[in-house]
Amino acid sequence: MSDRPRLCPPHLRGLDLEPRVFLEMCRCRYFTGLSHEYCDQGVKYLDVRRKKNGALIHPCLEPECTNCQHREYPTLREAKQQVKESSAAYTRCVIAFTTIIKHTKGVRKGSGYLKCPNCDNGRLLYSFTPNNGHLHARCSTPECCAVIQ
Ligand SMILES: [Zn+2]
User: Fold this and answer.
1) What's the 146 CA to ligand 1 centre distance in angstroms?
2) Has residue 99 got a pLDDT over 90?
3) How many angstroms separate the CA atoms of 114 and 101, rounded?
4) What ranges in the chain are assigned the alpha helix state H?
5) Measured distance CA(8)–CA(137) in Å, rounded
6) Dist. CA 139 → ligand 1 center (Å)
């Protein structure tokens, strides 16, 4: 990445990181997602976001945006662990999706459930949206897998 040095936050300069780990380390550990109103530290996203070149930026995601005193980055070890867990979660979703499509023989309508292919006791509930065939699925085991496709 030729532009990495310009975009690289100070705490990551000089480190040769795999891109996914790099991105993980640029995100505040308390970030819960912009679909939520508050982060895990109780900071309201609307209160700390700023405008830059017409776009809204948040200190949780943009190291150069420094207007949050609660921002804290994950350690290298934590970031690597998060990437590992995200990869495993993605794999579980792909397995769930392919299992459902096989089960319905590619027919994208209706709803039902089957034994979750990812865990021992989970029940994989699924339904296809009637008007567009989008799949919504979730395992009954918390944190196992959920798919919207
Ligand atoms: Zn499961």
Assistant:
1) 9
2) yes
3) 12
4) 4-7, 19-25, 45-48, 76-103
5) 38
6) 5
What's this model's pTM, rounded to 2 decimal places? 0.69
Indicate left, alpha or beta for 14 from its phi (over 0: left) and psi (-120 to 50: alpha): left
In the reported structure, the alpha carbon of residue 122 is separated from the centroid of ligand 1 by a whole-number distance in angstroms of 4
d(CA 138, CA 118): 11
Closest-CA residue to 137 (of 100, 84, 88, 90): 100
> Average pLDDT for residues 46-63, to the nearest whole number?
92
Structure token pair of residue 139: 């395992």
**Residue 73: other Cβ atoms inside 10 A:** 17
Which residues lie near ion ligand 1 (Cβ < 5 Å)?
Answer: 116, 118-119, 122, 139, 141, 144
Distance 100 CA to ligand 1 centre (A): 13
Secondary structure (3-state) at 147:
strand
- Please name the residue that has the structure tokens 């290298």: 76
More confidently predicted of 60 and 5: 60
* DSSP single-letter state for residue 144: S
* DSSP letter assigned to residue 37: S
